[in-house]
Specification:
Elements: H1 3-16, E1 25-28, E2 35-39, E3 45-50, H2 63-76, H3 91-103, E4 108-112, H4 115-129, E5 134-138, H5 143-150, E6 155-159, H6 164-173, E7 180-185, E8 187-188, E9 193-194, H7 197-207, E10 210-214, H8 229-232, E11 241-245, E12 255-259, H9 261-270, H10 272-275, H11 282-294, H12 302-321, H13 351-359, E13 362-363
Parallel strand pairs: 3-13, 5-6, 5-7, 7-10, 10-11
Antiparallel strand pairs: 1-2, 2-3, 4-12, 8-9, 11-12
The structure holds pyridoxal-5'-phosphate.
Pyridoxal-5'-phosphate binds at residues 114-116, 119, 142, 144, 185, 189, 214, 216-217, 245, 247, 255.
């Protein structure tokens, strides 16, 4: 077989479908959030403003976070030195897990190397714990949840996005005695809308199902302590498993689930994605713990939030003026957590528009169409 020819064909397919991804070389400058320097393919550089970052609050450049990371780095060195079960569990990991459990009002939390892995590892492991489990998954769930559900070997049902009637219909059609789990998000970043948390919890109660929520875009942004939308709506106690990231509002890296001690113990023991990989460096865990504390809305600077909200509104207006598809922001400010995918733009930005915008100093990232589930 001519392997190179196959690779050429695979890449050509993406070009033909307009789905070939290009990355731009961006270097953030500490203390200048959200400004950065773009190194162009010819090696020249240009100052730009990053409008499509995950570091919603600039926590990745927060002096408190950096100091915590530096301290841990000097104290313990660069890496953790092992997987969680073989010398890779440190006091930093334990402290961060305790902090996250407390944040979400749960007995325990489990750290993973990213929220992607946390979703994938947990959702693919649950059928081992609950034989016969049926997972009801929102059609617009993130790729990491899709992967976890897809390869877990269990039964899955996909309900239309936020469609409670469809979810009910699917649940009614299944064996009442079968174990069930509803997997959904609190904020769908690509579409900028919220999941109906309370109504989903009501359905879960009615059908005896577990609930699994991805609060990746909401932790650090919503709720009195920044635990997410479920905290804001006083619903955390009704959710069995809460997934979050340390890489967005907390500006560092890593992901987690928070749940009962028993659930975390079982996932910890059965999920290959937790056990068979080197744990996060202690410095990351130390920085993330400080970021989680600093990002509590009660103490984070109001000015940052105001400027984020104003920026998202300005960008949406500019997009609409330029004839780009843009979702109108609701009257009360930032609906989605500020420009994960360019504050309010819906769907894809044609690559040519992204490039023209970049040349004028604003970094946007075109999004690829969703894959079918
Ligand atoms: C809804 C959702 N869940 C999970 C993730 C994965 O988060 P992480 O970057 O920590 O892997 C993302 C990333 O964008 C996301 O949007």
């Amino acid at each position: 077989m001519d392997y190179n020819e196959k690779l050429d064909a695979a890449i050509a397919r993406l070009h033909d479908e307009g789905r070939y991804r290009t990355f731009i070389d961006i270097e953030r400058r500490n203390g200048q959030f959200p400004h950065a320097v773009w190194t162009k393919p010819d090696g020249s550089q240009q100052d730009i403003t990053v409008w499509c970052g995950n570091d919603y609050l600039g926590m990745g450049q927060n002096p408190v976070v950096i100091e915590a990371m530096e301290e841990a780095l000097r104290a313990t060195g660069a890496g953790s030195g092992g997987t969680r079960n073989i010398s890779g569990t440190t006091v930093y990991h334990k402290q961060l897990e305790a902090e996250l459990a407390d944040l979400h009002g749960k007995e325990a939390a489990l750290l993973f190397t990213s929220a992607y892995i946390a979703n994938d590892a947990t959702l693919s492991t649950l059928p081992k714990l609950f034989p016969g489990l049926i997972i009801y998954s929102d059609a617009l769930n993130h790729a990491s949840m899709i992967e976890g559900v897809r390869r877990n070997g269990g039964a899955k049902r996909i309900f239309r996005h936020n469609d409670l009637g469809h979810l009910r219909e699917l649940m009614e059609a299944d064996d009442p005695a079968a174990p069930k789990l509803i997997a959904f998000e609190s904020i769908y970043s690509m579409d900028g809308d919220f999941g109906p948390i309370e109504e989903i919890c009501d359905l879960a109660d009615e059908f005896g199902a577990l609930t699994y929520i991805d609060e990746v875009h909401a932790v650090g942004m919503y709720g009195p302590r920044g635990a997410g939308v479920a905290e804001r709506d006083r619903l955390m106690h009704r959710l069995d498993i809460i997934n979050g990231t340390l890489a967005k509002a907390y500006g560092v890296m890593g992901g987690y689930i928070a749940a009962s001690a028993k659930m975390c113990d079982a996932v910890r023991s059965y999920a290959p994605g937790f056990i068979f990989t080197t744990s996060l460096p202690p410095a990351i865990a130390a920085g993330a713990a400080d970021a989680a504390r600093s990002a509590r809305p009660a103490i984070r600077p109001l000015a940052v939030l105001r400027s984020l909200a104003a920026g998202a509104t300005r960008l949406t207006r500019a997009a609409l003026t330029a004839g780009l598809p843009a979702a109108a922001l609701p009257a009360r400010g930032v609906h989605r957590p500020v420009a994960s995918h360019v504050g309010g733009l819906e769907g894809e930005i044609p690559p040519v528009v992204a490039r023209a915008t970049l040349l004028s100093g604003i970094a946007l990232q075109p999004l690829m169409p969703r894959r079918p589930f």
